Every structure is written in C-alpha cells, then in structure tokens.
Amino acid sequence: MTSAKHLIALVGFGTVAQGLCQILHEKRHQLLTEYGFDFEIVAVTTRSRGTMYQPQGLSLPSLLKLAQTTAGFTDDLKDWDTKTMVRNSNATVIVELAHTDLQTAEPALSHCRAAFETGKHVVSGNKGPAALAYVEMNKLAAKYGKFFLNEATVLSGTPVFSLVKKTLAGNKIHRIRGILNGATNFILSEMEANATYEQALDAAENLGYLEADKAADIKAYDAQAKLTILANVLLGMPLQLKDVKRSGIDTISNSDIKTAKHQNMRWKLIATLTVQGENIHAEVKPEKLALSDPLAQVMGTQNSITFSTDLLGDVTITGPGAGSIETGYSILSDLLTINTGKLS
Amino acid sequence: MTSAKHLIALVGFGTVAQGLCQILHEKRHQLLTEYGFDFEIVAVTTRSRGTMYQPQGLSLPSLLKLAQTTAGFTDDLKDWDTKTMVRNSNATVIVELAHTDLQTAEPALSHCRAAFETGKHVVSGNKGPAALAYVEMNKLAAKYGKFFLNEATVLSGTPVFSLVKKTLAGNKIHRIRGILNGATNFILSEMEANATYEQALDAAENLGYLEADKAADIKAYDAQAKLTILANVLLGMPLQLKDVKRSGIDTISNSDIKTAKHQNMRWKLIATLTVQGENIHAEVKPEKLALSDPLAQVMGTQNSITFSTDLLGDVTITGPGAGSIETGYSILSDLLTINTGKLS
After folding, report:
1. Domain count, chain B
2. Rounded distance, CA A167 to CA A343, Å?
3. Between vectors from CA B41 to CA B40 and to CA B42, what angle results, nearest 5°?
4. Structure pTM?
C-alpha cells in the first residue's frame, strides 16, 4: 500500500464525475481507515465550464454544489485548456471522463498520452482509448511505470476487470459471454411488457439510458467497443473494433418478441468472445435464449457476464450497467487498485 | 508481493487436497511468472495414512500418484501426529482440510492454534474453526501477524470473500441472500425433473455431493454454518451458529414442487442475512421463488449469492459450489492472497 496522497484531476464533470465526487465525499474517512486511501481532487476541467485548479485540493462540498448548476466555474479558475491542465497540474492521476468518440478516441487519447508523459496514472471511464488504442496505451503506461485502468468502460458499476484479475486470479478464460448494454436490455424488457419499439426507445431516452448518439446502443457499436476492450484487457489479445461482428436490436420486432414468449424464450443482445488456441471469435447479435439460460433472466438495465474458465467452469456476475454512483464507484475501484500499487 | 517461497503443509489428503495438488502441479510455471507465487508442499498428514514430511519439498507427481491409491504413505514417512507436524515442520502455511465437526470444530481448532503459535498462516477449507471460533482465530492470527483464510468454506469454487474484500472494496453490505448448499439444490432440481425425494437423495449420494452426515445438507446445518461464516468474515459480526434460524428441505414434498411449477415458481433453500443497524437477522429455509428471481434459475450443484450494497445495489455471483478442482482452487485463491501480503 502506498502512503502518498493521490491527487486527482477530473477531465469532464458529468454524472460519473459527480457520482465519484459524492462517494469520495461521503466515504473519505472509511477509505482512509480501511484502505489507507488518502486523496484530494486538485483539478476539474470541462469544455463548457473551464478549468478549476487548486494544488492543495478543491473543496468537495463546493464541487457537489457546482454539480447542481450549469454555471461556469469561478473560484479557483485557471486559464488552462485540458491538455495544459493534464501536463502542468500536480495531479498524480488523471480521470478521463470526456465524451466517447469511437472513430478517433480524441481528445481522450491525447489526454492519456500527455498524462503518461508527465508521469501520471490514467483511469479512463471513456471507452475510446481502450477500444481503439489499448496496446499503445498499455505500452506507454508500462514505459512510464504508471497504471492505465478502465473498469468503468464495461459493466459500469460492476468491477469485472478486478473480478477476473484479482478474484479469479490463476484461472485461464476461454469464453466471455454477456449482456453488455443496459439501454438495449431495458428496451427489450419494455417491449416484452407490451411497449412498442418507439415507446421503449422514448422511455430509455427520457430515463437517460441512451448514449448521445442512439446508434451506439441500438446498432450495438457500444457493445462492440466493450467486447473489444474485454479481449484486450482480460485476454491480452489485440482485438480491434472491426474484428467484432455486429448486429443490433433494430432488427427485432414486437412480433418476434411475442413469438419468443410463446416458446418460453426471450431475445437478448448477446456479446460473445470465444478463444480457440491463437484465434478469437467475437460477435454481438440478438439471440433468442431459453428462459433457463441465466442471461435470459437479466432484466432492465442490469448487465451480466459469464466467464468460462479452466478451473472453475462458468462463473457469472450480474450487476448494474449504468448509474451515476455505480459508474462513479468503478472509477473509485480503479483508484483503489492504484493505491495497492498492483493489478492482481 | 513477498518473494519468499511458501512452504505448504496439508492436513488431510481427500479430494480437495488432491485437486489443489493437481492445480499446483499443472500451474507451477504460470503461478510463478504471473503472480510471483513460489511454493513447495513440505508435509501431508492424514489419520489413516500417516505423515509425510520433506523440508525441501515433496514430489508433486509422487503425491498425485499416491492420490490414486489408499495405501499408507511410505517415502518421507515421519513418526509425527498432525499436531506435532503442525508445530515442528518448517511449513509457513497450514492448509486445514480435515473432517468438519460443527459441535467442537476439533481437531481442526487445535491445529489452527498450534499453527498460529508457531508463526504459520492458516488456510482452512474446514468450516469448523470459522463457524465456531472465527473471532478467537482472527484475534490469534492478528496477534502473530498471520492470515486466517477460509475461502473454500462458502461457495467452494467461487471466491466470494475475495469478491467482496477486493473486487467490491469500498462498498457496505446490508443484505446477503443466496443458495449455499449444492447438494440440496441438486436434489430439488432432480425432484422437479420427476425424481422422488428418495431417488434424488440416492443420486446425490452416488455423485458424492452429500456430506458424510446427510443431515448436514438436508436439515441445513451446512448452510447454517456457511451463513455464520459469511456474517463473521464479511460483515465483521460475531454471529454464532445458534443465532441462525434453520429449516431444511426435508419438509418439501413432490406435490409442493408440482404445485410451485404450476404457479411458475420454484422451491429453493435460501439463506439470508439482513443487517439493520447493530442488528442482524439470519435464517436458512426453503422459499418458493418466482421464476423471475435470479436465484430461481440456479440449478443443480451451482451456488449463488446476491450482495446488496450501498453503492452498487445488488451484485450477484453464480458459480460452482463443489468439486475437487473447484474447491482446490479456493485454497489456491487464499494462498495467492497470502502471497500478496494483504487482504484487500
């Protein structure tokens, strides 16, 4: 356990960053006494609100008040763009939570590079860098002796990377199969409860479950990116987005769902990675499952993954796939890993 | 990570010890390179076969051959009873896998005490010490700066203690609810597939799923002990066996199971711990669950636990509840924890 204080800089101040701040504020004492985890938030930067920086640490109660408004930052304001903050602040860890771009992974990728080059760990809740450039980022992190962690990118609130690396340490995994997208799982659940596709989509949008670009969910680009990340992080295989076959839930009609119900079956958007020797098969597609399949019982925004292992056979974990506090916790989970100084 | 070699002494040489030996033999290289885990088995002791001891390390291939027979040990034989071996061997960790006794926890308890007093870690797959004397054992371990670990006692092959302490670190748990006994879950599954209670019981016995004393499974003494251990290890609450209300599956008839099926429901032996402030309610009993309850879909010898947490809501893990390799892995999981030198 390292005894130094972690100085955290947040890139982005949306629901995940705010969830993290709330947890850090409420659990400061518990984290210190139970895990020896000591921290300050030294910087927060957003495109619209500017950059706040306070090398001694910003006030968490003030940050939580700011979260209630959309006003620009005022106190502790600094004339820095994000990259300058990443380079020049005294942060020891950059938490990258800016908008996900699955075409270029920018600007997140530049932030990550700048962080490593200036000796900072990176915790990225942004799927871009891990999905598009995991190998490069991992090498860069190793070169500078820093961590590149991505727990929040898959099964947001449920720490599956930690599960495999720590709790299942010693096992080899030959198949990963799961429900990785909460929004589409919610839509399919609503349709089974007699909503039309359009009604279910509207409900998902109103509840904030959908990505800004709906196609990311509906056409399974999001699940495709997550499966790519799982292969890279957990199997050490340099899978690329284009290697993952993809079809979304927009091909599933209410009548398909009714038919399945009469057959005691249920449609789910299933992501599967199968390893055979040096080869890997990766695919996301809607599948009609028997109700006895454990994944068939994962409803609403829940996510679930079954890991097929050499020593334990199948181990399945089911938990939240979204939420401010839940995803904020995944970031904390990575911060606690950094605090231990080791991955497994 | 400690760099010293772990010198392991096995108390008991049944299926779990043999599963562990097989894993250690096959994964010696992987464990060293990936986890820096270096080891020798220096002693094996059983009541019927005597004590083998070799301070430089016994041959794993020879041990695995011995596992195929019931012959007494010959090579490396030493005129030591178990307690003498525990005290006088050069082992750094005692793996206690002798017969579980839920009345006195002996002789396991004496072995654990002797181990701590002579500066050895204890990994106990035996439920006795953790169910009857967790507080005392934990204090003793702390006094001598050693580990007292019990991963194999609950959800044999699925490391739930590690899941909560490492993967869910930072969460507070207010409810634990699960299927903790594989044998009775198998029997209920068989009865639903039209076996009589007696047929299902015979099948479970023939497949080696039942404890030597069947009442441990059928009358839920086993689940009662596991729930006691969960409260002590994961909630830090000094629950005792007698504090857990208990009723077994022997009250469930084939007609109960048929009726449930017509109602789209299913009987399961459910263990529940609920924390309310300083109070804890603990109970094991058959419950009729809706098929939409995730625990209703856990069939055969699978086990499953749902942890209700403050940050993540419900997180459920499902995995093997028995098996030689699976339970052997749980012992390895504890050994890897000792190797890291820290619990979380």
Report:
1. 2
2. 11
3. 100
4. 0.93
